[in-house]
Design a protein that fits this description.
The chain is an all-beta fold and 357 residues long. The protein has one domain: Methylamine Dehydrogenase, Chain H, CATH 2.130.10. It has one helix and 30 strands. β10 and β11 form a beta hairpin. The radius of gyration is 19 Å and the shape is globular.
Length: 357
């Protein structure tokens, strides 16, 4: 699968009025969750929502996406109205569900990540030849740092960002097949890891000593963050069509497991220590765009281009719920810190909040 930013270019624009929808979903385990009645609807991103993330304390929900806007241009005595695109990140209060801040960007937003303290929100945006990570102060919505990456690639620049658990590092994965570890003190890249394909996903282990990477060449690797050395290869790289790209990699909360996803293949669960495959999750009818563990590590949520989100038992591999409600591919999914709700972001211009207790 291509990165979300590239895949979006080949999908029709479906969303007209972006909304955030809140729904209750409490069916018996193993049954599909359908016909959910929205509890609350908020204006969001008009065209599509590409990323969503809860703050560490759960008080803020960040959503990134794009909307149409009209630009007035004066040429002498002639006034023209031109259509343009507005790229924004909105910070929503989860108590009032009103926007606290709107952060404006000039390029496509592909990923979001809060720092462990919640002080910063890092936003990955992509452009031709370059990529940028905007680091914002969450409380004041002030831009703190702008990290520029020259990828020299026609592909979107920054595909993945994540803070280390102790907040001392910000890792970025980009189209130049490199993962950079930035110091959050100096905001300079102190370590650079070279991959054999475009970086699509990255994840720190809970202790911050390891970094898992996924790339276009199908490879899944685990690296030491102290010496930037590969310590384990879970999946061998190989050269085939783009449909074999590894799109997602994420550590479980206890660091013992690693979940991965590739196009045309089910989601896999690996033993992080031995590198052996533990379980396989089959059920989606299209590519997987996002995978995340619940805070207690017992449940795995998978988002797909088939417009659904599924919840799985990590222990048994059994499908627990299918969340239906989006009318277009789902790009991003995130659990609230207490594990009671799940946020999903979609091409249809909506973010849905589900009760998954």
């Amino acid at each position: 699968m291509l990165s979300r930013a590239i895949k979006r270019a080949f999908l029709p624009v479906i969303g007209i009025m972006g909304v955030i929808v809140f729904t209750s979903c409490l069916p018996p385990l193993g049954r599909s969750c359908v016909n959910n009645k929205p509890l609350r609807t908020l204006n969001a991103h008009g065209l599509e929502v590409t990323a969503v993330a809860f703050s560490p304390n759960g008080k803020i929900l960040a959503s990134g996406g794009q909307s149409d806007k009209v630009v007035i241009v004066r040429e002498g005595s002639v006034i023209r109205k031109l259509q343009d695109t507005d790229y924004t990140v909105k910070l929503w209060s989860t108590s009032t569900w009103r926007p606290l801040h709107i952060l404006h960007h000039v390029e496509l937003i592909d990923c979001l990540a809060f720092s462990p303290s919640g002080e910063f929100l890092a936003v990955g945006v992509g452009g031709i030849d370059t990529g940028t990570v905007k680091v914002w102060r969450t409380a004041t919505a002030q831009l703190a740092h702008s990290l520029r990456i020259y990828t020299h690639s026609p592909l979107p620049g920054v595909n993945a960002i994540v803070f280390s658990p102790d907040g001392k590092w910000l890792a970025t994965g980009s189209a130049d097949s490199k993962v950079r570890l930035w110091s959050t003190t100096t905001w300079r890249p102190l370590r650079i890891i070279s991959l054999s394909g475009v970086a699509t996903s990255i994840s720190f282990s809970p202790d911050g000593k390891l970094l898992a990477t996924a790339s276009w060449d199908h490879a899944i690797r685990i690296w030491s963050t102290t010496i930037s050395k590969e310590v384990k290869l879970l999946q061998q790289p190989y050269s085939r069509q783009l449909s074999d790209i590894t799109t997602v990699v994420t550590f479980s909360p206890d660091g013992k497991m690693l979940a991965t996803a590739t196009d045309n293949q089910p989601v896999k669960l690996w033993n992080a220590a031995t590198g052996k495959e533990v379980n396989v999750f089959r059920g989606h009818s299209d590519s997987i765009s996002a995978v995340t563990f619940s805070p207690d590590g017992k449940t795995l949520a998978t988002a797909s281009l088939d417009t659904t989100v599924k919840l799985w038992s990590v222990t048994t591999g059994r499908e627990l719920l299918t969340l239906k409600g989006h009318t277009a591919p789902v790009y991003s999914v995130d659990f609230s810190p207490d594990g009671k709700t799940l946020a999903t972001a979609s091409r249809d211009g909506t973010v849905k909040i589900w009760n998954v207790l």
